[in-house]
Amino acid sequence: MEIKKLGLLILFLIFGILKSNAQLSDLHYLPPLKQGSNNSSVKEQAIYMSTPESTAFTVNAYRGTSTIPIASFSISNATPARYDLPNGDNGITMVQNNDTGIVITTGGLRFESTGGQRFYVNYRGSSGAQSTSLTSKGRQAMGTNFKWGGAPNYATTSDISTSLGIMATENNTTVDIFGYNPGCEFRLQNDRDGILDDAIQVVLNAGESFVLEAYTTETAANVDGWLGASITSDKNIVISNGGLNYGVVPTSSSSRDAGIDQPVPEDNLGKDYVFIRGGGQDSTEFPIIIATQNNTQIFVNGNTTPMATINEGDYFIVPGTNYSSASPGANMYVRTSKDAYAYQNLAGSTGVQTVGLNFVAPLNCLIPDKVDNIPDITDAAGTTLNGGITIIASATTPDANIVVTDGSGAVTKPAALTISGNTDWKTFYIPNLTGNVDVQSTGPIAVGFFGANGNRGIAGYFSGFDVAPNVDLQITGTQCLPGSNLEVVGEVFDAYQWFYEGNPISGATSDTYNPTVAGDYYVRVTKGPCTYDSNTLAAYYCNPDIQLIKTADQTMINEGENITFTITVQNFGVDPATNLVVTDALPTGLSLLSASPSTGSWTSPNWNVGTLNSGQLETITITAVAVFNSLPNQIRHLANIALNTQNQVDSNLSLDRPSVAIIVNNDFDNDGIIDVVDLDDDNDGILDCTESNGTITNGTFGWYLNTPSGTLAMDNTSNPELNSWFLSSTSNLSYSGITASTPFSAVQIDNMPSTSLEEALYNNDYIEVSFTTADNLSNPILHNINWGWYQPSGGDSYTMSAFLSADGFISSILTKEDLVITNNATTYQVFDLMDQTFIPLLPDTTYTLRVYVYNQIDDDGENYSFFDDINFTISSCRGMDSDSDNVIDSYELDSDNDGCSDSNEAYNNINADGGDDMVYGSGVPSVNANGTVVAAAYPTPADMDTNGTPEFQEAGNVPTITVAPANSHTFVNTNDTFSSTDDGDTYQWQVSTDGGTTFTDISDGPEYSGTTTNTLTIITPEVDKNGYQYRVLIASDTFVCGNTVSSPATLTVGPRTIITNRRITFRVNKN
Known about the structure:
This is DUF11 domain-containing protein. The chain is mostly beta strands.
């Protein structure tokens, strides 16, 4: 869409005064459409013509470019006419394959009265299982800027397609179709994917038509990639669009019916819409909003918070749960901040196969007070329907003044339903009508009709686009900013209110306005009981200005999870920006998965946009995955920053927001439980806080400005441990961009220049505090940020938003947006400044909170506002680093670095870790939802020497032998001993009877004593023990993971005997 803009010549936005050319018109066009296959959506077809005129007149029907009527009809209020068409793909209203995707001269119809009399034209079609209706919008349908409308086509059965028909009203009309998903594939005659171009241009003469078909099952992009595409022309055209067949419930194979309608051009739209529910369920009853301008906010049922914000060409489905009830006739009010298309998907019954489509008219108090008449409401080209009407009426019109008659006479109406969020209108739902239906009122009404028969459902509006006010805007001055004025010229109105980006501008209530900021403006004027909005006027800077905004679909993700970034770039300068390149290098910790630009090309890390025209907005979505890491911290702070370059020098007049702060949750032990909630981060069977030295639960610290009064230092802590080991330092409270002082225990803000968050961000109007966490913290978590005040003595209301940064505001996380602080506090009030459930923190990191303040309202007779008492609530354990390796014990499996696992030492069991990977138990442990090991008992860790330090946090060693057992000689039946001098605590002696090849444990008994002491006694050995070897295994009570084995000592055993031969005497075993 080309929004009229400042920058060339003096431009005018003109609405014809009290235009009366809409559904009731002297001229009607019906462009042809395309169904999935012949007779699948419509077979029997008829066109119904009616009029409020009592005197009969002639209506001529012309086919395509023909100047000779194909049929003529005489109609009056009492004698409506019906024009029966050939069945199915008749080449007139429904084209065949060969006429699709090319310019045709014989398709489409034009109806014109010979004397300028006004009449209605309503197309109805039926087949064996489908029905549909389309009401011509008359001259009001003629224009040069449209969006392709309808509903996403999720149906998966055969003969499913979406169609667009275009018909020219003048010769040499150039039509451009663009802005659809490049993946869309359109039919070219018999080839369903014969048109693959990213943009389409055709030239049509008066009466010629061009029909596009997106056959749904051809490609996934054909489901909704066409929805919101732009159709522009240099001369007036008329379009029709819809699904033939289409379905809106992806999970149901039977979800299909026909739904088509004719929209009006973008300059005949509005912002306020009321929808009246049909007979369907929530899945088939919903509005579809299509934006014609960027940053269109969608508000539902008077809610002041937008349900969604969409850009030009985007669509949003408002869930059916927002209707006032689940009953037929329930209503819903939708307001958009900028003009938008509004379609309604509804159903004739609860069956998903009875859907229909309405193009809905915006609310307008100048619409007619009667619809006379809707002909033969129960007939759809020969199919009998159960028909009815919906009425949107002015709330000031008495119900008794709204009179409905049908073929049976006067109709008894039900009670009107009020509309949530809009007290100016009310609605009626009147089923079971017959014959010609007439609605008369003393106030404005919009009337639609509906019908159902088995699987068939139809719907359509007969009024609502009938008139629009005359609001002329003239631009004077330099034609770009600064130096331009917007003026309402011509007609004088009772009241004026200027809007910027959909929001009222404070004090801008005259017929002129001097804009200073680029963006979209319109004026709302009031005359008598009616209020009207002008179209939007886009104002741009004289100097080049490229705005770059980056967002993410989430700010906290886990390892292995995907995150999607969206970068939007918009040109707010009056001239094109050329050779524009956006660079987005992902930080370490994220890995690129994909990138999808709306224009240009992507070669990581560069998005080559090319030329960006004035006002043009383009986007790219980048999907990345958080890579796994083994860093011993519960989170990683990542900043993803984009930047732009172009041939022109960016004046940066518009606020850029190029960075996104991301918290990546670590899962150190890879057990599927992120460290933030994992009570045992390393699965060693010891709780993290047990491996620490101190715990703070819900501790608070803050800047109360009390001690002494007016101090800017942090002056309140709930726990002395906050200062002793959680906080390394804190800053003084400071402020920027505002005029403030501390005359007592609060900040008195005397001047708050910004009126919006965007302006406050640009001007750096904030109050700031910082704190730095100490090192060696275990699982530090920020639970809440709150702000409190007590102000019974006055002070102006204002608004605040809060951001938290861990990198000096290279990037930041929004914690609270648009918190309104009112001046009516009579008691101490506490306001949350953090919407997140929690925010994990890092040790040894400086966190800065900026509270941006803006929109000061002089509502108390004072010239100041107050800011007071900012408070943080945290929890943390004081981490220990037993081996001084800069890794806290909760992330180490051997905290004291003595070679013995924490599991074994804490449980004083050499087998606690299973002997494989130091985590508790054998293999990969099963864990609970809180990250604790299922098989672990989590006892108080062993402290065998009772010195107050668990053994897993003080290094142990195997015992040291200073004197090892020595070889010994003894006589038979004479005790002998072996001893060890060492620093051990426990002993186990062993014996080898095979010369030291194998050793086995021995125990006290007839042969030995002292087997578990440092001295072993061999009791009265026999000669069979001669040559035995003995050794001792020595262990320490404070080191469970090993022992010291002495060298073996040999026992020699002999008898007390003298042996004499002839010459020599031997004395054996003497002594």
